[in-house]
Amino acid sequence: MKKKLALCIGVGLIICLFYMYISFQGNFLSKIIIQYKSLDYVEERFPTKDYEFKDVIYNFKDGYYYARYQSPTMQDEYFSLAYHWYGNFIQDDYENVVNKWNTWSRLEMQYRKYVELVLQKEEPYHDIRYGTLKSLDDMSQKEKDEMILNKEYDISELGKKYGSIVYYVNDQQVNIDKVCEYLMKIKKSFDQNNVTFYSIDFVLENKNNDERLELISFLYKDIDKDGFKKKVQENIEKTKDYYKQLEKQK
């Protein structure tokens, strides 16, 4: 009786573990089916391309299986096909290749690493700091059309035109003069390292008493130039108005 009970418990545990594995990793039979179905799909849709199958991954969040493909020679040409577990096709995201989203994602990652060259040398007085590029959604259609798939770009030139850096600083003093002081210090640091940016989002706050001043898209060319302090004040007011309008829309 005890042996039967132990056997039942053991089998039950194995079933539970197998179910948990399937829930997070998907089942291998579905992956095999989807691999072959996706190969047919890609061969039919892209007969002149050399896209190679990479793998099938399961996303437990949406319950779909994704067959991933990549060109062996073109760095921006990768995409995935979504399937139900029983092999029914849902959609592909090849549009990310066509609309240059893959290209821009690659360039943004390069810019982040480019900015990191400066950040690694700075004193650790910032809570949050990173570099990013202007969102693809905010670009004009002309700018998107001019972007070339798989092309290598000069990251320094992209930084001058589209680069944005983000800084959050915690300080006991929160005032306009302190904001100007930090902006000049940041600009000097980037200039010394020959790293470019177009604008900065900056937050100066005192977390002990919730004091906070914030700027959105303050231009590099306006830092430490004529009317600098006045432009900082104007940007802070515009930023406050922006958040007030957002609150009203909720």
Protein structure class: alpha+beta
User: How far is the N terminus from the C terminus?
Assistant: 64 Å
Would you report the number of β strands?
A: 8
- In angstroms, what is the radius of gyration? 26 Å
H/E series: HHEEEEHHEHHEHEEH
Oligomer: single chain
Q: Count of helical segments?
A: 8
Low-confidence stretches: 10-24
Q: How confident overall, as mean pLDDT?
A: 88
Order of the strands making up the biggest sheet:
1-2-3-4
What helical percentage do the residues reach?
40-55%
Bin the strand percentage.
15-25%
Could you describe the largest sheet, including whether it forms a barrel? 4 strands, antiparallel
Overall spatial form: elongated
Summarize the topology.
Layout: H1 2-25, H2 28-45, E1 52-59, E2 64-70, E3 78-83, E4 89-92, H3 95-98, H4 101-119, E5 126-133, H5 141-146, H6 155-162, E6 163-170, H7 176-192, E7 199-206, E8 211-219, H8 228-249
Parallel strand pairs: 6-7
Antiparallel strand pairs: 1-2, 2-3, 3-4, 5-6, 7-8
Helix pairs in contact: 4-6, 7-8
Q: Could you characterize what this model shows?
A:
- The protein is of the alpha+beta class.
- About 45% of the residues lie in helices and about 25% in strands.
- The chain is built from eight helices and eight strands, in the order ααββββααβααβαββα.
- The protein has helices spanning about 1-25, 30-45, 95-100, 100-120, 140-145, 155-160, 175-190, 230-250; strands at about 50-60, 65-70, 80-85, 90, 125-135, 165-170, 200-205, 210-220.
- A four-stranded antiparallel beta sheet has the order 1-2-3-4. A four-stranded mixed beta sheet has the order 5-6-7-8.
- A hairpin with a 4-residue loop joins β7 and β8 (about 210-220).
- The radius of gyration is 26 Å and the shape is elongated.
- It starts with a helix and ends with a helix.
